[in-house]
Amino acid sequence: MDKKEKSFISAVIYLRNEEKRVEPFFSSLYAFMDRHFESFELVAVDDACTDRTVSILKQWAENMDQPLTIIHLSLYHGRENAMNAGLDIAIGDYIYEFDSLETPYDMEIAYSAFQKTQEGNDIVSVCPSETRRSSSLFYQVFNKSSHNPYQIQTDAFRIVTRRAINRVHSSSRFMPYRKAEYAASGLKMAVVEFEGSLTSRQKDRLALAIDSLALYTDAGEAISMGIVAFMAAVAFLELIYTVVIFLIGKPIEGWTTMMLVLTFGLLGLFIVLSIIIRYLSLLLDMTFRKQKYLVEGIEKIQK
């Protein structure tokens, strides 16, 4: 058997009502970790599960030699917030991030991802060869408007170095969208691809997509400024129309004055809105959300 890696490895796993998948996933992950690494830990984040997920996991972990840490969140927080809680607890030099228990891949591909980190990559994503059209469209828009040095795409899981975690935490303690934070960190990224696709649909995907476009790209600002420019153009055309009617037509008494007041008022409003949008964009760049999760308790289970 090949010599085991000496680096300490953490695996952070997101849990939300996965009672059918939890035991097979953890058994496969534990076997993989034990096969390749001398020292490792598993950190499970219980995002207020309402089924038997946690009890099944505890029962499975009773005979495990390596420690299992279960973080119980006080209430449902969503995937990104919950994973932030797990990353704050994990102490590994390298950290696997599993935010889904779906495994349309051979677990050994996780070792290929680790080997990529040994080539100088701080973030390695394991991605399917096929993605949904809606996901592809989102990432096209995101990558085009984010201006990051690296492109992001649909991934099944990833492994990041402690340096990557420290780098993004130096700019913001809380990561609303980890994938985007890593891409913007300036650290080297790589992709390991497997044949297949992901079938599970994340319920929080739409909200996350909207938030990430607002936080990490200029797409929202561009759309808002476009709407403001369009409405300002309409107001300007209305101004021209009002002047023309005044010069060549027979407007009703007081109509011209009223239209001029309304037109200049709208123009001023749209100019002010464009300034406000710009200031909000700058404030968003300078001020970021802080830690955003509530931990009810932490359990450490070991044989």
CATH class of the largest domain: Alpha Beta
Instruction: State the CATH architecture of the largest domain.
Output: Alpha-Beta Complex
Helix coverage percent of residues? 40-55%
- Assign the CATH superfamily of the largest domain: Spore Coat Polysaccharide Biosynthesis Protein SpsA, Chain A
Q: Count all strands and give the number.
A: 8
Oligomer: single chain
Poorly predicted runs of 5 or more residues: none
Order of helices and strands: EHEHEHEHEHEHHEHHHE
* Overall mean pLDDT: 83
* Main β-sheet, spatial strand arrangement: 7-5-6-4-1-2-3-8
Biggest sheet features: 8 strands, mixed
Give the helix tally.
10
Number of domains: 2
Features:
single chain; 303 residues; alpha/beta; Spore Coat Polysaccharide Biosynthesis Protein SpsA, Chain A; elongated
Give a short summary of the structure:
The protein is an alpha/beta fold and 303 residues long. It has helices at 22-36, 53-61, 79-89, 109-117, 133-146, 162-171, 178-184, 205-216, 219-248, 255-286; strands at 5-15, 37-46, 68-73, 94-98, 123-128, 157-161, 189-194, 295-301. Helix 2 links the parallel strand 2 and strand 3 (68-73).
